[in-house]
Recover the amino acids of this structure.
């Protein structure tokens, strides 16, 4: 088939659907999984799904501020996951577990 | 489309000074000897904050700076004052607390300063990027502060719960922000408002974005369905940090709420105010009803803080200058009375776990009449009884609701206040009219065997300063609210001109 025919088939909607799917997987992972490491990975998925939608909006609207926002997001997400892992290590040292449902010292 | 870059260093002078202070404290912490006491860092932070407080109040300049990203109006100055007062109080009570729990970490002080900086950036932001960076600076600092008692398994559990839910809420908020950007084509609040006004039909994507942004911020404020982290986090966190979390992070999130919804999305007011109506009503009732059954004083204060958030929400959703000024005034009063109450709790709490239960407050008036007296002032104010600031603040919020014809919401607010009276009065009743527990009395006096783990309550000079200042502030704001209300009304006027 000719190359030009399908060149412009990737529209904004495709990116938004991809972003939404990743976002949903991320939220479901945070809420449903018991292992904290997987929860942290799901959080990363959420942040990156947002990055996809921001970058797509930015590209299709030809506006730069979205791209700048993506750079900020990546930086913040890196800091966030560093702190998350540090907390996870402390939790593991204290409680010898990485499962959320075993962390139930406080209730009410 | 893009405004001129308009660089003005005076507009962000408080932020610059606070960053410099935090970096100085950080550098000093690095060059200090390992075992040396870090108290001097606390004093340095307080002196710095006391200098920044007047600077932040006077650096009010019209217009938007840095490409329209930053505003230095009366609104941000008012909130800066709340944040800095809260930070000073928190550091003052922390110095005593950290000595007692044997934490000698310099990072505690500068992370508190960075959290304050994040709040100030949020209140001064006029752009979604700026807002988000400020929010994350605050949230990341709080994750670390909650986990700072690494030896306590409660503290790390609280930090993990707070981190996972906080990061999830940031993600949801960010998703909403990305849709706002997609619809409006800009992240600047003023331009978003312009774009939203230009389109006459309702944009479903923007409605979706509004829902996501509300959910994201509701986590930070701990509104009803999104409050799950708050009691656990308050209980596990170091008590001074719980105080700062309940006052500072709430005030910052409300400032961000007002910037986003009153400046950027006033066109959608009928839609978002309906969502907030439900959230506010549910939060007020849930917070005050569940607080009754709490046995731990910190958890009780956490639920009371949830109920207060619901009432503050009323002033915001009625969208009048009176209501918005009421929100700001309420948050100012709340900084005094809630940190005051948390100070007494901090003094009373022991590493052994004694002092956490409300029953441990029985007979406090006999042994520590001064502490019992100030605690009663704070609780009376939290319950909203005149002549304290809590009453005046509630009065302004509820009258603004009646002015805007939100009668049912005002009724629910009054009912929730009446319910909340029960659990505040219970503590006062325990302190004054109940016989002290024989066991508590014995150990507190050092007579029983466990004297080494239950030291007698020593109110240090720093804590007494906070108690006096908070009590004076609470009463003063109750009997003479006019200048503070006027300042707040003047600060929010520009929001309602367009």
């Amino acid at each position: 088939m000719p190359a030009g025919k399908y060149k412009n088939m990737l529209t904004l909607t495709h990116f938004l659907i991809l972003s939404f799917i990743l976002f949903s997987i991320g939220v479901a992972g945070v809420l449903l999984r018991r292992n904290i490491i997987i929860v942290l990975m799901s959080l990363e998925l959420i942040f990156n799904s947002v990055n996809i939608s921001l970058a797509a909006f930015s590209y299709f609207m030809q506006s730069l501020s979205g791209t700048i926002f993506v750079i900020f997001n990546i930086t913040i997400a890196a800091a966030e996951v560093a702190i998350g892992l540090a907390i996870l290590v402390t939790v593991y040292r204290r409680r010898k577990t990485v499962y959320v449902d075993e962390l139930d010292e406080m209730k009410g | 489309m893009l405004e001129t870059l308009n660089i003005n260093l005076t507009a962000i002078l408080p932020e610059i000074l606070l960053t410099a202070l935090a970096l100085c404290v950080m550098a000093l912490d690095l060059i200090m000897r390992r075992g040396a006491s870090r108290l001097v860092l606390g004093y340095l932070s307080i002196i710095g904050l006391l200098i920044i407080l007047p600077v932040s109040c006077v650096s009010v300049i019209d217009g938007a700076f840095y490409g329209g990203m930053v505003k230095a109006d009366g609104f941000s100055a008012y909130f800066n004052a709340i944040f800095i007062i809260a930070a000073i109080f928190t550091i003052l009570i922390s110095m005593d607390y950290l000595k007692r729990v044997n934490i000698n970490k310099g990072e505690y002080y500068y992370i508190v300063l960075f959290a304050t900086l994040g709040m100030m950036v949020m209140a001064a932001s006029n752009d979604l990027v700026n807002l988000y960076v400020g929010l994350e600076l605050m949230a990341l600092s709080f994750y670390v502060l909650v986990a700072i008692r690494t030896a306590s398994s409660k503290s790390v559990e609280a930090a993990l719960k707070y981190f996972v839910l906080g990061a999830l809420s940031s993600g949801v908020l960010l998703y909403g922000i990305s849709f706002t950007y997609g619809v409006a084509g800009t992240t600047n609040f003023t331009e978003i408002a312009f774009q939203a006004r230009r389109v006459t039909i309702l944009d479903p994507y923007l409605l979706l974005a509004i829902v996501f942004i509300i959910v994201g911020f509701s986590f930070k404020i701990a509104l009803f369905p999104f409050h799950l982290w708050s009691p656990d986090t308050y209980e596990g966190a170091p008590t001074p940090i719980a105080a700062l979390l309940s006052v500072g992070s709430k005030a910052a999130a409300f400032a961000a709420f007002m910037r986003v919804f009153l400046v950027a999305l006033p066109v959608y007011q009928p839609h978002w105010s309906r969502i907030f109506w439900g959230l506010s009503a549910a939060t007020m009732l849930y917070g005050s009803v569940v607080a009754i059954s709490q046995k731990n004083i910190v958890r009780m204060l956490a639920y009371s803080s949830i109920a207060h958030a619901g009432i503050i929400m009323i002033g915001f959703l009625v969208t009048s200058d009176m209501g918005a000024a009421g929100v700001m005034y309420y948050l100012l009063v709340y900084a005094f009375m809630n940190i005051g109450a948390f100070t007494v709790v901090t003094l009373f709490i022991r590493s052994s776990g004694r002092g956490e239960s409300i029953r441990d407050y029985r007979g406090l008036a006999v042994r520590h009449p001064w502490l019992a007296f100030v605690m009663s002032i704070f609780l009376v104010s939290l319950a909203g009884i005149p002549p304290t600031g809590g009453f005046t603040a509630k009065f302004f919020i509820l009258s603004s609701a009646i002015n805007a014809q939100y009668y049912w919401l005002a009724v629910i607010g009054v009912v929730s206040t009446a319910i909340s009276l029960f659990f505040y009065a219970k503590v006062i009743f325990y302190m004054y009219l109940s016989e002290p527990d024989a066991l508590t009395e014995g150990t507190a006096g050092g007579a029983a065997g466990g004297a080494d783990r239950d030291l007698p309550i020593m109110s240090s000079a720093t804590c007494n300063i906070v108690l006096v200042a908070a009590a004076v502030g609470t009463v003063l704001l109750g009997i003479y609210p006019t200048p503070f209300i006027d300042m707040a009304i003047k600060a929010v006027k520009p929001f309602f001109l367009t």
Remarks:
- Residues 13-102 of chain A form a domain with the Helix Hairpins fold (CATH 1.10.287.3510).
- Chain A has one domain: 13-102.
- Residues 65-95 of chain A form the longest helix (31 residues).
- Chain A touches chain B at residues 16, 19, 23, 26-27, 30, 36, 39, 43, 46-47, 49-50, 53-54, 57, 61, 63, 65-66, 68-69, 72-73, 76, 79-80, 83-84, 86-88, 90-91, 93-95, 100, 103, 105-106, 108 (CB under 8 Å).
